[in-house]
Design brief:
Mean pLDDT: 97
CATH topology of the largest domain: Aspartate Aminotransferase, domain 2
CATH superfamily of the largest domain: Type I PLP-dependent aspartate aminotransferase-like (Major domain)
Order of helices and strands: HHEHEHEEHEEEEEHEEHHEEHHEH
Number of domains: 2
Number of helices: 11
Strand content: 5-15%
Length: 372
């Protein structure tokens, strides 16, 4: 990669520079009080996030993966129980189901948004189905009203895997406030990230919230009273402090992400590639700014050409889960053509709230040259 004008794929340094005094002060406060596990910042963050999302309960946890796992544990998922989800996602989505002995049931995605196709879900429901786990991929919420309607009809829970969509809106409500559980990640590259691992769960259900709080501390209802099987799933006080500092400009960052995404969409109109569709009743916070190319060969050539011009790219994701060695035993009887095609075609471009217009123009110029 050229060293003189290389762009960051995600610009965390500029974000830290803008928030340095707040981040440093928040970290110092934790170092001063020394409560590194379940310190006061944990409850402070949970209160702030619940208010931001618009739900009664926020439970911070050790990671986005832990959020999904704990959500499933609160539903008492049993071996052999089925959870309908998408094959076009990071492994954590299916991993948590399989860890509990459950069966991920994959249905295909929409070819234009890459989110789960809600029209295919009901046909996959069986007597063993316990939950539906849509993924709000790339920062755009899935068709939650349609998914919730199917769930209500069949008595199922819905867990929104919102690791990439925190801050996004859908029909006037926030991601994570749309279903039985909302689960998000604070991995550093996410729209709201910490400086390590972290995550959170959101619900309006008092009973489920209490279960999650107990599960994250090894199933304890009080110290050394283990009322249920749990995990070591707490989010560190230091990471909560960092997210509290980042919340100060999060609304601005979301507005920037949406604006930068719209500018990308506009600038890419003239180029021979497919842009992701964003539905009119929701927005996209572009955890990744992803486009679709003709095929894998074109993508490989384009990635190489962009790299020589200092423009980094990534693939989210190069192989759908039903084609992964660990999960191919869960490949369904039906075909998943859109997920398989997307894995061959998707490519993500540099994206963050601090991406300047000049940097974006550099990406577009490199793309234009490489596609000429």
């Amino acid at each position: 990669m050229s060293s003189t004008n290389s762009l960051p794929f995600i610009d965390l340094k500029s974000q830290y520079a803008a928030l340095k005094s707040s981040v440093d002060a928040r970290i110092q406060r934790v170092l001063d009080h020394g409560q590194y596990i379940m310190g006061p910042e944990v409850k402070e963050l949970e209160t702030a996030l619940a208010a931001h999302v618009g739900v009664k309960h926020c439970i911070t946890v050790a990671s986005g993966t832990e959020a999904l796992l704990i959500a499933l544990m609160t539903l008492d998922l049993q071996p052999g129980d089925e959870v309908i989800t998408t094959p076009f996602t990071f492994a954590a989505t299916a991993e948590t189901i399989v860890l509990l002995g459950g069966v991920p049931v994959f249905v295909d995605i929409e070819p234009d948004s890459c989110n789960i196709d809600a029209r295919l879900i009901e046909a996959a429901v069986t007597p063993r189905t316990r939950a539906i786990m849509p993924v709000s991929l790339y920062g755009q919420v899935a068709d939650m009203d349609e998914i919730n309607a199917i769930a209500a009809k069949h008595g199922l829970a819905v867990i929104e895997d919102a690791a990439q969509s925190f801050g996004a809106s859908y029909r006037g409500k926030k991601s994570c406030a749309l279903s039985t559980w909302g689960a998000t990640s604070f991995f550093p590259s996410k729209p709201l990230g910490c400086y390590g691992d972290g995550g959170a769960l959101f619900t309006d259900d008092d009973t489920l919230a209490q279960a999650a709080r107990e599960i994250r501390v090894h199933g304890q209802s009080q110290r050394y009273t283990h009322t249920r099987v749990g995990v070591g799933g707490r989010m560190d006080t230091l990471q909560c402090a960092i997210v509290l500092a980042k919340l100060e400009r999060f609304d601005w960052e979301i507005a920037q992400r949406i604006a930068i995404g719209e500018r990308y969409q506009h600038l890419l109109q003239a180029l021979p590639l497919q842009r992701l569709a964003v539905r009119e009743d929701r927005n996209c916070v572009w955890a990744q700014f992803t486009v679709l190319l003709q095929n894998g060969a074109q993508r490989s050539a384009l990635q190489q050409a962009l790299q020589t011009q200092g423009v980094p790219t990534a693939i989210h994701y190069p192989r759908p889960l039903h084609r992964q060695p660990a999960y191919e035993r869960f490949a369904p009887a039906w075909a998943l053509p859109h997920a398989e095609a997307a894995a061959e075609r998707v490519m993500s471009l540099p994206m963050s709230a601090d991406l300047s217009a000049a940097q974006q123009d550099q990406v577009i110029a490199a793309l234009r040259q490489a596609l000429a």
